[in-house]
Amino acid sequence: MFALKLAFRRLARTPILSATLILSLGVGAGASTAIFTLANHLILKPQSGVLDPEELVDLGRTDQGSGFDTSSHPNFLDYQARNQVFDGLCAYQATPRPLGLAGPASAESVYGLPVSRNYFSVLGVQPALGGFFPLDPGAEPRQAVLSHRLWQRRFGSDREIVGKSFKLNGEPFTIIGVASADFEGLSILAADLWVPLQGLASPELLNSRLSSWLMMTGRLRPGVDLERAGAAMRVLASNLEQEFPEENDGRGLALVPSSRLPAPIAGPVSAFVGLLAALAGTILLITCVNVAGILLARASSRHGELAVSLALGAGRRTLVCQLLSESVVLFLTGAAAALWFSQLMVRMLVSIVPELPIAVNLEFSVDLRVVLFCFSISMLAGVATGLAPALQATRHNLMGALRDTVAEPAGRWRLRRFLVGGQVALALLLLVATGLFLRSLENAASIDPGFDFDSVHVFSLDLTQGGYDETSGQVLAASLLERVQRVPGLQKAALSRQIPLDGSGFALGGVLAADHPDSEIRRADWNIVTPGYFQTLDIPLLEGRDFESQDRASSPDVAIVNQTLAERLWPGRSAIGRRFLDGPRPEGRQRVIVGVARDAKYRSLGEAARLFVYVPLAQNYNPRLRLMVKADPISPDPAEVMRTVLAELDPNLPLLSAQPLAEAARLGLLPQRLALSLAGGLGVIGLLLVLMGVYGVSAQAAQRRTRELGIRAALGARRIDLTKLMLWEGMAAVLGGVLVGLAGAAALTHLVGALLYGISPLDPASFAAGAALLTGSSWLASYLPARRAASLEPAHVLRHQ
After folding, report:
1. pLDDT at 491
2. Which member of 59, 307, 629, 710 has the lowest number of beta carbons within 10 Å of its beta carbon?
C-alpha cells in the first residue's frame, strides 16, 4: 500500500507527462477492450434468462457431410420423438419474421419468432406474466408471448395484458404471457414476440420434408456429453435418410454448443472479430513499447536517486517493486480512461453499420466481464511494460552512478533503440493494412455494378402483414405501382423480391434447357420483378423485351435471363423464344425467354459473372417485396410520399424500411468498411506514438552526446555533418523497424485476402506508401532535435558540460 501511495505521489510531480501516458494507455487498452466488448456480446456472452445455458446444443443439417443449415418440420418431430440424449429438443424459425401489429391509427412492424410449443420449457425460461404455450398439439395455435421490451413499449406495461387479443398480419392472436426482462432469445437476432409454429406456417410447410426452415436446440441429459449426443443423432439422421431417401438424401446432422451467434454465420463472424482483435492488439503492443521507452528514459534520469537508495541499504527487489508499482498505477489509471474510450470506439463502429435487412440486437453494454478484461490486460501490460525498465534502472555501478559525469549505460541505450524499432515494425503493419483496405474500397467503388444507384430509393414491404393473400396482394402491388408512378418526379418505379448488393442474397434454382436437356445448370440466381425494373435501375436489355401487363398468371410463363446464362446455354445463338425448365427434373415449370439483360453484380462487387433469371411478379407471387423508386432531384421526399401513399391504400400495412439504394448496397462492403475504420484510426494513433518514441530517442541521444558534438564543432566539424550524424542516431532504429515491419506484413497480410477487392495482399503500393509515410515522418521527428543539437555554440557547450 505504501508503494502505491509513493507511486501516486511521483506521478503527481509530473502531471503533463503522467497525463500523456494515461491518455496513450487509455487508447491502447481501450481499443482492445472495444473489440472484446464486441466479442463478448456476439460470441462469449451466454444466453441470458436461460437455465444452465452450457447444457444447450444447437443442431444443424449437413449436406454430404458439410455445412450447418436448417431442417424440416417432419424431421424435427422424428428427432424429437426418437432421440435418447436430450431432455428436450425444440425448434424455431432461423430468423425472426416481420409481422404487422395492428394499432389504433396505423400498423407497426414487429419481429415475431415461430417456435415449437416446448421452446420455453426446454430453455428453462420463466415468465414475467402469464404462462407459455401449452404442450398439447391440438391447442389453439394463434397465441403469442410478448417480449418484456415490447410489453413495456407498445402496451405500457399493462399487467392485465394476459388474455387480451390483438391482430398480427390481420389475424387475431391471444396474448398468453410476457417473457422475463432478461430473456432476449437464443441469438442476437432480436424477437419482439413468439408464436407457435402452427400459428404462422402453412400446412404445406409443416408437412414437407423438403422444406428446411427450422433451427433446433436441445438440452443434454445428465451424463451425456456433446460427442456422445452427436454420435447418437447422426445415427438417427442416417435412419431417416434410409426411410425417406428422396427427401433426405445426403442429409445428416451436426451438433455445436449453443451460442448467441446463429451457427451458419458463427465461423465468419468469429474470424472477422479475430481480425479486429489482432489490429487492436497491435496498437496495445505499440502503446506498451512506447510507454516502456518513456519509463526507461525516466528511470535513467533517476539513476542518481536510485544509486543513493542502494547506497543507503535499499534492496534491488524493493526498488524494482517501487518502479513496477508506478507502472501498474499508470496502467490501472489508464484502464479507467480505456473503458470510456472503448465505448466511444464501439459506438463509432456501430454507426458505420447501415440498416440491416433483419432485426439484430446491437446494444453493446459494459458488464462485469468487460470491466474485468479491461483492468486485467491493463495490469498485465503494466507489469510486462515496467519490468524491463525497472531491472535496467536498478542495475547500477554504485560508485559510478554517484558521480555527476556518469554516462548512461550502453545496454540501456540499446534497449531503448530496440523498443523504438519494435514500435515502428508494429505501426507499419497497421499502416499497410490500412492501405490495403483503402485501395480495396477504391477498387470496389470503381467497379461497374451494372446498374445505377443514383437517386434510387428502396422501401421494404411484407404484404402478409396486412393480411393479404395472393389474389389481393397482386391487386395491391399493381395499385401501389400505379399510385407511385403518378406522383410528379417519381415516374420510374418497380417492385422486386430482392435488391442487388444488400447482402441478403437471391433465391437459388436450377435451369434445364428444353431443346438440349444434357446442358443442365444446377445453381442459378433468381429474382421476382415487375415491369419497369430494368428501366428503374438502368439495366439495358440486350435482346427482346421487358415484362408487360399481358404477362399474367393465365398467360404462358416468361422469363428474362442475363447474358452469361444465355451464352452458357445457347452460345452464339439468340436466346429469345427459347424454353427452359426451372428445375433439373422434367416436371419443372417451363418458361419462355422474352429478353436478355446485361450482366450486373448481384451478391457482391467482387463476384465473377453469375447465372441469373428474372421472372414476373404477376406469375410468381411473393408477399415480401422491395419498392424501388427513381426520383428527380427536385421531387418530394420519396419516404414521405411512400408513407402517404401507403396510408391512403391501407393504413394497416406497415412500411418496414426506407433508405437510398446506395446505402442499402453498402451492407455488402460492411466488413471492409469496419476493418478500414479500425485499422485507419489505430494506424494514425500508432504513427503518433511512433513519432513520440522517435523524437524522444533522438532528443535523448542529442542530450547524451552534447559534449561530444561541442568538441567536434570546436575541431571544425560542419553543422550539416553534425546533423547527419545525429539523424543516423535516430533513424537507424527506424530503418531496422521498417525492414522488420515489411517482412512481417508480407507474412501476415494473406490473412485479410478475403476482404480485398482487386488487389493482392502483397500490393506494392500499399507497402511502399506505409513505409514511406512512416520513414518520412520519423525522419522529421529525428531531424528537429538533431538540428537543434548541431546548432549549439561550441563555447557554450564546453563551458556548461
Report:
1. 74
2. 307
